[in-house]
Hints:
heterodimer; A: mainly alpha; two-stranded antiparallel ribbon; elongated; B: mainly alpha; 2 domains
Amino acid sequence: MVTDSAALLMLAIRSGLKLSGQIRLAYVDATKRRELVLPLPNFETKTDWREARDFFTMDGFGPKFLEGYVRVQTGTVVPGNPRLKTLVTRAVANGLNDSEKGELAELHTQYACLLTAEEQGQTWSDGRPADPDELSALLSVRQWQNRRNDPNPPALQRIAGTLVEIGIEYALQTPQLADPKSSRGRALAGFLSGLDQQIDFAEGDLAEVPARLMIATVDSLSQNAGLLSGDPKVQELIQATTRGLTTALADQLKAIEGSDLTPTEKHAAKLRAKDWGEVIFRSTLSTGGRMVLSDPGTFLGLRGAAGQALVVAVGNDLLDLVLEEDGKLSEVFGRDGLEVVLHSALEVVAQQPGLFPVKNPGFRQLLIGLATDLQAIPKLVSPDLFPEVARLVLDRTAENLDLFWPEREDHPERNLLAAAAKTTLTLLTRTVPGATWKPQFRREDLLTVVNSVLDEFVNHPGWLIDAAGEVRPALQEVLKGVVEVLRRRADNRLTPATAVEVLQVLLQSASLRLDFLEKLPDGTPVIVAVTDTILSTVFDPDQDPAVAWRLLGRQTLSEVVEVTLRVMADHSLTPAAAVKKLGQALTAEIRSLVNDDGFDLESFATALAKKLAA
Amino acid sequence: MNSTLSSTSIRFTVWLRLNLGLALLLILPACQSTNRLREAQDAFNSAASQDNRARLAELRLSSGAPGLPTGWNQSAGVSLEQEVSGSISARAGYSAALLSLQQLSSDDVAQLKADQLWGTALTLKALTQWRLGQFGPALETARQAQTTASGQIYPRDAALLTALPGLIEIDYSYASLSAFRANPTNAQATLDQWRARLVTLNSTPPSAVDHLRAARRQAGAEGELAVYLMLSELAAYRNFNEYFKLVNDSTPPATDAARMEAGYVLHELGELLNQLNAGPAGTELVTTWKNKFVLLPKPRPVLP
């Protein structure tokens, strides 16, 4: 049996070897980067009477010293130098002897110094020239002028990364550091195990990632008490999530580094990747953990490595989703939206994990397709609809995977419910020429209708999907027709909320009888004609306002629609005849309203039934 | 190891000391080649610093002028004696650097190549040989660096290898001055030759300024390296100016192409030093150069 001391020594030896390698590499990198003082080439620094002649005669230099001038710094008058003037005059005429040449050269050196001091704006009483060492420092040159172009990792990253690895290995091997009996210890051990495998932190951009994920793990443990249940599967989940997401994040960072982006763009892209990686990590931990507690049966469906790998694969899918497409989709999501979608995606997976390939669960393509479709809808009120719509689509998809997402392996972007959601939102937000009713559906209104549509797919797929698994045109025909009726017949007395209720009723009733989808000679589906009849009666411009007020109550109108369709479903009539008799029954009931006999829904239903039976 | 240590933290600290100490012991022999290179770099830097100090101090050598501010009456530069001794000391430093590099064993060379430091070593060797006046060997070493270590030459060193023929030309022109002063035969031809070799742009073969401009294009028009290369261009002009004076008994006229180009470079140098926040040292360098060498900084005209 290996003693603790021996194990510690062996660990130290392994760690020392690992660390020494990185320290040496850091030393080598520092040598590459080392500043070099560059010696100037040899050049003549001495000047003579010729430079002096130029200096005292050329504009911008020293002619002022000959005649005198006012020193700007002090306001004092500096007298001219007659001897200088004489020498300069002779120099211009090339009449200097050797001694005079020397004298003029010396004067030049002095006055050049003076002019430099004046031009430097030195404080006259205590001004000092720059130290030669300061000037020399200008010639100490780095290897990489722009540090961002330096491909070598900073020394701290090399060594810090290695210390993190060593710390992880220590924590795993030295149980006392984290009590394995405690649930917290088990959870942390899971996290550390996930980090310990495969991923090289010393190279690349992951220096700060372990710290961020460690904090995320601790936070998740604090916020989700259930993660501390001590269930070994929780630990496995944390381990798998850590390993999988960190690897995916490393791949993302490498791709950014190898891209054509400028150093500044790369830096911003890497920051975005790390931020989203942390968000996904936290969301996966908390969502996955909640699933364990709230639905053990679901979690049991994720038993085994394949199940855990799927949890990670879904998280990776979403990480790819928010980081790709130039980050546009990350603007649509937000942290909360991401959690919502992630939860739904995991629910889908949990239902039938065997039906999803780990390599590509398909959620990314599905969600990209859905987001793209929604963004293409003009006048869609709230672009932030996307997370909720995605959630609805995913939740319903789980109800019947093969029916709603039959091509998830080869064409994951093709999902019947996503297509239906897009159709619904397009129709609800389109404008109709000549419309009298131009509502602004709120976000809640749109989601309610989408939800109703998707409910119908789940509960009554027969009228929406044909034998080949394709969406029937009925949905579009019904929705389009009803929306057009609403816009043409209604006015601003009809609230969007009421309209939504009517639509819900119509969708739920459409499945009552296949005849409702049949078309009248003019091509209008019966159900649309029924709606048209009701609304044209209620919104008749000549209608008594009091009557209209009674009938336009939110509940009343939708109930009238519902009762009408229910009664009609029980009678066998040709569609045209049924619609005509409906109109007659309605007219009669409204007359009784006008006569103040009141409007009774049951009476209306009875009267309508009688009419239809006649 | 005392296995009865009760505290986990104490064990951790002991463990950490163990492996860090071991790490340091392990890296020492593995860094021998890198250490030799660093020694050479240290010697070179020391020598170059002395070189530059002397050269830059000469720009302000002054025995005093009427009305100079107090601090300016005392030259902060070197006397002639100091200049000579500084030069000797610098030469000794360059020799020490070259010796370190020449003493690299085949194992050291192999390790430097493996560590991707061989280009750095060869560049340093070429620069050292240049400063010692071994112009031929310097060019040969530069060629060797560019052919055998092309993947290990980093931006600054690559620019210096490009500039080296120009730097050598400037030194050679300076070294030839005293002989020309003593015996100015074929004066005009000599002047024309030095104009072409030092300051003519787009010359064939390339002039010193051509080599330095090519290096500037490599390095990018920014940073300390650009400062160095621009000062070297001005040095080339200084030496040409000397030949011109010896031949024509005057400085080049204000309309002389080389003098005008030097004025543009001096102006650009001032702008660059401002951008680099070089402070008073930077502006003083430009102002001193202007007034001592009577070279007016001018912005380069913009072509329509």
